[in-house]
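Entry 14. Structure prediction run on the chain below.
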Amino acid sequence: MDELYLVGLGSAAGTGLGDGFFRIASATPHIRVGDVEGNAQAILASVKAAADQGAGALVLPELCLSGYTCADLFLDRTLLHACESALAWLLDQTRDLPVLFTVGLPVANGEAIYNCAAVCCAGRLLGLTIKQNIPNYGEFYERRWFTPAPVNTGCVAFAGQSQVRMGHRLVYRCLDAGLDSVTIGVEVCEDLWVPAPPSIDMAVDGGATIILNPSASDETIGKAEYRRELVCGQSARLYCAYAYADAGEGESTTDLVFVGENLIAENGSLLARTDMFTCDMAVADVDLDRLMAERRRSTTWAKRPFSMRPCNEVLFSYTGRSETGEMCERSSAPQLMRSALDIDRVFPQTPFVPADHGDLAERCETIFNLQAAGLKTRLAHTGTKRAVIGLSGGLDSTLALLVTVRAFDALGLPRSGITAASMPGFGTTVRTKSNAETLARGLGADFREISIHDAVKQHFADIGHDPAVTDVTYENSQARERTQILMDLSNELGGFVIGTGDLSELALGWATYNGDHMSMYAVNASVPKTLVRHLVRYAADVFGGEIADTLLDILDTPVSPELLPPTGDGEIAQRTEDLVGPYELHDFFLYHLLRFGFTPGKIYRMACRSFAGTYDEHTVWSWLRVFYRRFFAQQFKRSCLPDGPKVGSVTLSPRGDWRMPSDASSRLWLEEIDRLQP
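Output returned:
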C-alpha cells in the first residue's frame, strides 16, 4: 500500500489509534502583569495540567507571558528580552510533554514589535503566529506598540532556535501516524472579530481542523453572549474545532476587567466553557472524523490535496521530530487519538431529538409545518381536495393524520375531506381500533371501518395458503390488502393516499413491499421513530382534552403491525422492537452512519458509552449487526419510494440524500462488526 493511501485514510481506516477523537484544552493561568518569570511558571503549570488530562493541544491567552496590559512597557528592551529567555526556558521544560501549546508574547523584529502566539511542541518552537488585525478603538490602543502581520511569511532565529517560521497564516500539521487529521491554525483575539478572519484561509487553504485563539478580551455587559456566538459560528462555518482562551483576573488593571471565560466549540456546538471570574481550564474531546466527514460531504467546501497546501505549512511531531523529519530525543508517538470509550463526552441517545424541552417544542412545530407544507403543495398542485389514510391506532398513522389535518386547515379545506380508514385484520385489538375511531372523529375526519377478514381469507384460498400458517405470507397479505383498499378508495373519492411509514422503518426495510411501502405522498418519510413519539406528544399538549387523552394512550401502546392474532386476553401479540430491535438504538446507528459515515466500530463504541446502564455491550453489538444486515439487504425497497418532504439532515430518498446500489455487499461492514463481538 503506498504512502498516499495511508495518509488519506488516517485513523479512520482502523489503525487502532482511536475513533478520531482528539482532546484539546483552553486555560487561563494565574499571571501578574510584567512578572515574566512568574508567568512562565504559571504557564508551565497549565501545560503540565493539560498533559495530565491527556490534551494534545492547549491554547493560552494573548500575551500571557508578559501580560496583555503592559502598555508602554512593551517598548522596553528588558521586557522583550525577558520574554524571549522565558520562552526558551519553557521549551526546555516541556520537551517531554506531548502537548502542542501557545504562548503569547511580544516579539521584536527589526523596527517592529509583533503581538505573537508562539506555537510550541516537544521542545521545538514550531512558529510565531503574528496577530494580523490590531485594534485601535475604544479601550484598545495596540497600534501604539504593535505592527500588523506582514503579508509574507519569513524565518527568524528566536528563543535559542534557528529558522523559526514567522507569519500570520501559519498552519501546523502533525506528521505522526494516525494523527494526520490534527492540523492546527492560530488566530489572535481581534482576528476573529473582523469580517474575514484568518482562520478562513487556515481551514480552507491550509486544511486546519482545529483553530486556537489566544485572546485578551475585557468584559462588558452583553459581550460574553456575542463572543460565544462568534466562536460557535466560526466553528460551524469552517467545520472545525475552535478553542478560545481569554485573559483572566491577573490582567485586570486600571480601567479594564478580564474574566477568563474559556470556550471550546465544534461545528457550531459549544462543548465546554469555564465560568467567568475564574482561572479554570476547559477541556473537550473533539471529533476530527466528524469534521472531516462534514467537509467531504459538502460539495461547496474547497478541497485541497496535501500536495497543494500553501507554503506556510509547518510540520510537527509529538515525537520531537524536526520539520525535515530528523528525530530528536523521543522515539514513539503518544496515543493522542482517542476511542469513543475513552473520552469525556457523552453522545445524545436520541440524536434526532433536541434535549431541551423548549427547543423540542419549537422543533416539533417546525417539523409539523414542513410536513404539512409539502403535502399542501402537492394537494394544491394537483387540485386534490380529498385524502385517504389507513388509520391503525398506531404512532405513524396518527402522525400522518395530524399532518394531513394541518395541511387541510392551511388550504381552507374541510376536514371531512380526510377519510380515515380503519381496516381491522387478524391481529387488530380493540384498543387500537377504538383509538383510531376516537381520534378521527375528534379531529373531524370522515371515519370508515372496512374489515379485511373475508378478502384476505379469499386471497388465501386463491393462492392455496393455509390460514393456520402464520408466516410472512399470512402477514404481508393483510398489509397488501389494506393498501389495495386505500388505493381503490382514493380513486373512488378522487383523493390521495397519504403514506404513514417513517424513516426508521425505511432504514430497516420494515415495510411490506407494495403494501404499506407504497402511497401517493409519504409525509413521514424523513421522520425517525424516536422523533415520531415526540411529535405526537407535542400534539397532545397542543390539542388537550379528549384528543390529548387518545394521543397519550396511543403513545402508551406497544409499537406493532398487528398482523398476528392477539393473545388470549386480547392484547397485542406482536411487538416490533422484540423482532427488529429497539428503535432508539437503530436511530442512533442510522444517524451516525448517514450523517457522518462513521465506521461500525466507532458507532458501536459511541453507543456503548451513550447507552451504558441501559443496554450491555453484547446487546448493542447484536442489534448493530441486525441494523447493518437489514440496511444493506433492504435498499431495493428504498429505491422506489414515493415522494415525501425532507424535514431533517438525514433522509433516505433515492432522489435526494441517499444514493446506494440495491445489491451492494455488506461484507466489509459485517466483518468489522464480527471482530467487535464482546
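The first strand starts at residue 21 and ends at 27.
Filed with the rest of this week's runs.
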